[in-house]
Amino acid sequence: MSAAELPVLDALPGLRDALARSNTAILQAPPGAGKSTVLPLRLLDEPWLEGRKILMLEPRRLAARAVAWRLADQLNEDPGATVGFRVRFESVVGKTTRIEVVTEGILTRMLQEDNGLEGVGLVIFDEFHERSLHADLALALCRESQSVLRPDLRILIMSATLDGERLSTLLGNAPVISSLGRQYPIDYRYLEPDTTQPIAQQVVRGILKALREEQGDILAFLPGSGDIHRAAALLEEHGPGGIRVYSLYGDLPHEEQQRALQPDPNGLRKVVLSTSIAETSLTIEGIRVVVDSGYARVPRFDPRSGFTKLETVSATSDTTDQRAGRAGRLGPGVCYRLWAEHAQGHRVPHRKPEILDADLAQLVLELAAWGHHDLSALTWLTPPPPGSVAQARNLLESLDALESGKITDAGKRLLKFPTHPRLAHLLLYGQEHGLATLAADAAAVIEERDPLGKEAGADLSLRVETLRRWRKKERVAADRAALDRIDRVARQWCRLLHMQTETGAFEHHDLGRLVAAAYPERIGRRDDERGRYRLANGRAARLPEHDPLTHDAWIAVAQLDAGTNEGKIFLAAPYDPSDALADARPQAVIEWDERNGQLIAREEWRLGNLVAATKPLTNPKPEQVAAAVLTTLRTNGLRLFEPNETVLQFIARAGALANWRPELDLPDYSEAGLLASLEEWAAPYLGEIRKREDLRKVPVYDLLMNRLSWEQQSILDRLVPERIEVPSGSQIRIEYFADGAPPVLAVRLQEVFGWTDTPTVNEGRTQLLMHLLSPGYKPVQVTRDLRSFWQGTYHEVRKELRMRYPKHSWPEDPWTAQAVRGVKKRN
């Protein structure tokens, strides 16, 4: 189909009108409509553009290159003239370039360098339905630039499956233009999957069936490049003659990608094995049959490495529909789906925005550089989760990239490296410490696929040694494709660091220093001889059994499975204990030894939760001692003061009054309240504590009494007296309770003869609970109604006890009898 016949042209007048009236517009058009390869050229001469550039964002490098080449081809030019592209490590633009096709991270960097995007009139977000993290960030930054600096900057969002009306509402009712496209009918054929077979083998089975049953070129979707290589090998062995197999994935050289997109030069039937990059932006000539594995590789945050990596998952329903649409662009087509027909309805309808699951360290750092500490101030289609934002900030602070939420000079330097802040910090550390080439190799190995596999153990040094031997053309037992990719990435890092790659030996502990720069919380110290390590973040992790690294007391871990209790280490490097001490920070540790009843003070040099060295601290600061004793008191309670009866009675009296008279606004004398307010009443007396005996000497009664004003002390003595005079003349102590329970007066019965009514405190509001005792101080009655006791129960008690205690007074009339303290007096 020529450019003049593409369906999107039907929507062009409406789009031009929308962009003339509004600075933001949304275009919905199905795959193959021509939105990526036609519209940018047709918008170049719009009056509002005023000769400025168009930036078009593509979510993948392969698509960015392919779209740029397709646009340039329509002008009979090569990229770098009117049309150019920028991707990671590659820039093909010239002085006359008007359309730049870029990957999303590139746009973010362009915005950081020039907030207003001067010289740019239109930013196009292509395939926005994929909802990548960088696309969401770039859109948020463009919208802010638009609202503050560049109201004339146009934004065009293009998508095949996104909900345009909902997106329009989120973007201030931006106009929505739709292109229906021209889709021929597709015959869907479902093949029952054989779960015992690898994905590549199942796809080849579907391809062979399609070759037998249908005519035309075939496009097969597989999750990743590894599956593509395996499928290609199987087709080479079992495929029929007369076909040509092409691969299509992001890391392929441009020439091989172009061969996959064009018809076979010898007229052979073509089978293209592709990842999900062929779903939308790319146009592949001659495809009539699609074979869909039903799987995709999507970005997921990988705690093992600390980076976002690709994970194989079931493709969403809208993704499988897009793939099938590739078969119906030129005429009626066929789509073989390698799953049961009923399973299609159970697929997740739409892909999840990456921002909900991703590591947000890069996003938070970019926004800090932009000047935003409060992420909620930006317009987000899907707001970033607060927990992920907090985790990202903690990481960036550990890398010295943020301080109090603001970007540091080091953080600004990290942004110059197009990679995760962890690896950027590793590269920057290597540059500053004369380890630039080793840093480049280490970063590439950590970031890319393992060339040796887990059977080789966890030592990162082996991978770097293998890479350097491979550079010298030595024979190595490793994945050559992985080594080639690692070498290419390492060379790019060396170019940025103004260095050349190396092939010589290196100090293994230097590699550990570099890993520690990227993962300071994963420095590990061996706990036992079986390879168990305690990490600086407090977690435990274990090396594989018999791994040579277990001989190292200290390691720095690059990849691990955190697990629930104990993690598994997959990639690490030896770490020099002297480096641990040099990187450690001194910290005074003052603790109370409950068993021996004394203070222990020492100075520790710590890496997170790890102790690299320790020595006694002879003169701790009083405030540090006080803080340690306060912590101990809060854990063990006031009993450490060994409070006497006077202190306990005072606490009970004050607590009782606070309960009875809340209007007095007394301090909280409950134990919880006293422990919570220790800094107010006890801290000044704790700085010199060294042993248990010192705690006993703290004047607790005076400290507690001084919490009350003079007036409150007077009220306490008047309303809640410590003792009460009974008819015998004795001063009997009253037992109070801090929770406000009735106070208890325990007194011998003979001492209260003549008392007609129950005594009270609290200005008569609170009756005492009387525990009437025998001459032997045994309770004979508990009552709050003394009058009723005299009238009734007393006579039964008298009858029972007068024979047991004949020397004591047992009058028939207790109302008028004289109260006595002891035995009866003889006449």
> Quick one: biggest sheet?
8 strands, mixed
Write down the Rg. Answer: 41 Å
Task: Report the mean per-residue pLDDT as an integer.
Answer: 87
Low-confidence stretches: none
Major sheet strand order: 4-3-5-2-6-7-1-8
Domain module tally: 6
> CATH first level of the largest domain: which class?
Alpha Beta
Number of helical stretches of at least 4 residues: 28
Outline: elongated
Instruction: State which percent range the strand residues make up.
Output: 15-25%
Key structural traits:
6 domains, Four Helix Bundle (Hemerythrin (Met), subunit A), Rossmann fold, alpha/beta, 6-stranded parallel beta sheet, 8-stranded mixed beta sheet, 33 strands, 827 residues
Short précis:
The protein has 827 residues and is α/β, with parallel strands linked by helices. It has 28 helices and 33 strands.
